[in-house]
Amino acid sequence: MMDVKKLAQVAGGGGAKSLQIQAQISLPWSDAFRISLKSVVLRLGRAAITATGIILGVAFLTYVWSDRIFSEGVTKARIQQEQTLAAAAEAVRGGGKPAAGGETASGTATPAGAERPAGEAPAPTTAGSEDQERSARTTWLVIMSLLVCGIGITNSMLMSVTERFQEIGTMKCLGALDSFIVRLFLIESVVVGALGSVAGILLGFLFVLLYYGVKAGFSVTAKIDWAELSGYVLLALAIGTALSLASAIPPAIRAAQMPAAAALRTEI
Amino acid sequence: MAKYTCPQCGEQIETAGIVTVCPQCHADMSAVVEAAGHALRQRAAELIRDDSVTTHEYIVRTRGLTKIYKMGDVEVPALRGVDLDIRRGEYLSIMGPSGSGKSTLFNLVGGLDKPTSGSCYINETDMAQLSAHELAWQRCHTIGYIFQTFNLIPVMTALENVTLPMIFAGMSSDEMLERGRMLLELVGLGGRLHHKPHELSGGQQQRVAVARALANSPAIILADEPTGNLDLHTGKEIIELLKELNVESGVTVISATHDLKMIDVSDRIVHIRDGRIERIDRREDIELEVGTMGGEETAV
Ligand SMILES: Nc1ncnc2c1ncn2[C@@H]1O[C@H](COP(=O)(O)OP(=O)(O)OP(=O)(O)O)[C@@H](O)[C@H]1O
Ligand SMILES: [Mg+2]
Fold first, then answer.
1. Chain A residue with minimal CA distance to B252?
2. Mean pLDDT, chain A, as a whole number?
3. Which of B105, B126, B180, B269 has CB atoms 3.0–4.6 Å from B281's, for a disulfide?
4. What residue spans define the domains of chain B?
């Protein structure tokens, strides 16, 4: 059981405690990471709620971007197919025997597709402005969806910080500086943001992959501009993480700056 | 001892405490005292190097401490001028009815909140003059806090809770684990190092909190109703633990409480009511009174 005499020895301090006040207080990044990760893992429910906002936002973003890349891939595939068909038709015509099959094929692909020098066909002006309008609408949708997600994440971060006022107050009693508290929350939000973004990217990408795979056959993957896609994936990861970080900063700073007594008093 | 020179009449004032007005010409001395604050700290640092003089008699002193909470337009005065000197190594209980300002006083002494007016000195250093870093250092090294609600970090194990203040103090990881383990063993929780707070009983949680409070060898243990959430027996255990620590290591214990059990172990009992010190009992006096007539004579 307890051995208080020994405890008192170990605790030492007391009367002989030095009077010198210093200003060296530290929280090494490695410890901060350990504490934050632990906090995420052990509060998975809360992290999942925050992450859901990020997952949905990033999934939509990834969906929009990979949808464009896939549809370009599909168009490319179709144009190639047309070219081969046209060449085949040419060859058949050259042979003097009009083949009904070939003509129907090229006919269904694009009206007058055979006559058009495929690939370099200037798009009709009406289609161009329609395209522009559509992409403007998409951009608008993406921005709106990110905004909505941002608000959702901020809300959930706010909750997550508020839930832990007591903990924040306690840490300050133990000698934590305001910046330690902010650091812990920022690491947490980056971890949750990055994981949520990865999940969102997978979700958005898989959706598009399945959609185009089923519609146009999984061979389209060969025609996809993977370099462009991975660029967008990285961008989505960065946006998701930044969104999570940005929404965590204000509540974290506010909580950290609270007097310890106020933080300790709050009950939820 | 601090020496101040009156800006008006040049009077030399030597005191262990502070002066607000010159005793000679009643000129305002606050500016001089404030300027001396920094010098005082440096002197304290020098004194440390000279091992013979390391301590002041009073570890905590408050002067005219007031705290007014503003709730919208309403002002709630929680403390209305508290002057209290607490000796090094003393076991002091603060008693008073609910809402009398015990926790408020505790927060001000512990540097967890700022007074509306008045000052609080720990080791003759005005808390108001400390930078954020110095204040954090003081919370980390000089004061150990114990709460009614234990306030362990819920996601951390007992050992992690105890080592957290050591991380802030910059202790090496090995040293930290060894010390944390030893402290927990010594409060009788050697078998619960890796238990989370919710896996421990209230009494066990409070013992973890005591071990945590001792992490960086504090000079003061501040306990706000440490037995408030414990049953009679467990509460007694915690009080005895604190008392023995106080006797064995000379750590100053300041405890806010409703708990009459505390009277037995306290060197002095400060009764506060409506934000003021109503009276201060010394244990000798109480024993005497109880022995003679059990009256409620005020003894200061
Ligand atoms: N943050 C705050 N905001 C407003 N009023 C407060 C605040 N903290 C304390 N008070 C008020 O100050 C007074 C003193 O409160 P305090 O918590 O110090 O009492 P206490 O003696 O610790 O009581 P208890 O024994 O119930 O813990 C009370 O009237 C309380 O309502
Ligand atoms: Mg209280």
1. A14
2. 82
3. B269
4. 2-48, 89-111+124-299
CB contact under 8 A, A8 and B248: yes
- DSSP annotation string for B105-143: HHHHHTTSS--SEEEEEETTEEGGG--HHHHHHHHHHTE
For the question of whether the overall pTM of this predicted structure is more than 0.90, the answer is no
Per CATH, domain B89-111+124-299 is 3.40.50.300: yes
Is residue B84 within a helix (H) or strand (E), and if so which, with residue range? strand B74-87
Is beta strand B91-95 parallel, antiparallel or unpaired with respect to B252-257?
parallel
Q: Cα-Cα-Cα-Cα dihedral of A199, A205, A210, A212, to 10°? A: 170
Q: In the numeric block, which tokens belong to residue B157?
A: 């194990």
**H or E segment at B259?**
none
Higher pLDDT among residues B129 and A117, named by residue: B129
CA distance B214 to chain A (A): 6
User: How many whole angstroms from its chain centre is CA B300?
Assistant: 20
Span B21-36, pLDDT tens digits: 777 777 777 666 666 6
A206, part of any domain: yes
pLDDT in tens, A84-101: 888 888 888 876 555 444
Residue A46 lies in a domain: yes
A-proximal residues of B, 123-162, CB under 8 Å: 123, 125, 130-134, 136-142, 145, 147, 149, 151-156
Q: To test the ligand 1 pocket, which listed residue (B80, B94, B100, B274) has its Cβ within 8 A of the most ligand atoms?
A: B100
Hey, what are B39's tokens? 């010098």
pLDDT digits (tens, 9 = 90+) for A106-160: 444 444 444 444 444 444 556 667 778 888 888 898 889 888 888 888 888 888 8
Instruction: Residue A261: name the closest of A166, A150, A139, A134 by CA.
Output: A166
Q: What is the pLDDT of residue A111?
A: 46
Exposed, middle or buried, B7 (CB in 10 Å: 0-12/13-18/19+)? middle
ipTM for the whole complex? 0.75
For chain A, how many structural domains are there in total?
A: 1
Inform me whether the C-beta atom of residue A7 falls under 8 Å from chain B C-beta atoms.
yes
Backbone phi, psi, residue A54, to 5°: -70, -45
Residue span of the structural domain in which A205 resides: 30-78+129-265
CB-ligand 1 contact for B101 (6 Å cutoff)? yes
B45, B115, B107, B36: which is closest to B77 by C-alpha?
Answer: B115
